[in-house]
Amino acid sequence: MNVLNFPAIQSDFYLQDTVTVAKRLIGQVLLHESPYGVIAGRIVETEAYVTGDPANHASRGMTRRNSAMFGPPGRAYVYMIHTRWCLNAVTQPEGVGEAVLIRALEPILGLDIMAELRKKTNPRDFCSGPGKLTQAMAISGEHNHADLTSGTIRILEFEEVDNIIQTTRVGIKHAADRPLRFYSREDAKWVSKR
DNA sequence: AGAGCGATGGCCT
DNA sequence: GGCCATCGCTCTA
After folding, report:
1. Cα(A69)–Cα(A122) distance, rounded to whole angstroms?
2. Which pLDDT does position A194 carry in this prediction?
3. DSSP-assigned letter for residue A95
4. Distance (Å) from CA A77 to C1' C2?
5. A79 CA → C13 C1’, Å
6. Taking Cα atoms as reference points, which of A173, A169, A170, A168 lies closest to residue A54?
7. pTM of this structure
8. Cα(A143)–Cα(A6) distance, integer angstroms
């Protein structure tokens, strides 16, 4: 199988309820045709950030940093936290600030590139966290607003995952009790722990 | 498993 | 100028 032939998920998908998008992104493939070569991983962990949610960057209105969240669906919202980049897929129509944070991947393509970028040898250290996977996938601030439905960074239709665990989100202060984190039970070994 | 800490940029006062 | 964050690493046990 050649992932490059898989169809990219189109913007209608990202117009579904953000929680639904977060669940259904599990099992799909994040691809980057990067300057280093083709890199890809299967999404195994996500979090939803919705309207009225104090943990959502968009909850206090639009700023320059979070503007991508208010843009069209299917774009990337990439921001920096504590020296690391994090990748979100923007959901909902333009003007609504919601997104899904991609938290972990199962590496599937370009493992040698990931090893080099991450300076790690164990594949479990490549993409088991939001800041790790952007480094492994060569994604950074320059990719903010990038179109994930076509272009060099895409999310591809791959498979549906049934056994999805729903728990609380990681590393947030506000609304920490809301169960808006999702991960694939079968792929728990690739998931971020903290 | 759990605590401590480095580190950068955005945003508000 | 200061606060704080969708984090990762290392050290201890």
Report:
1. 33
2. 45
3. T
4. 27
5. 36
6. A173
7. 0.96
8. 21
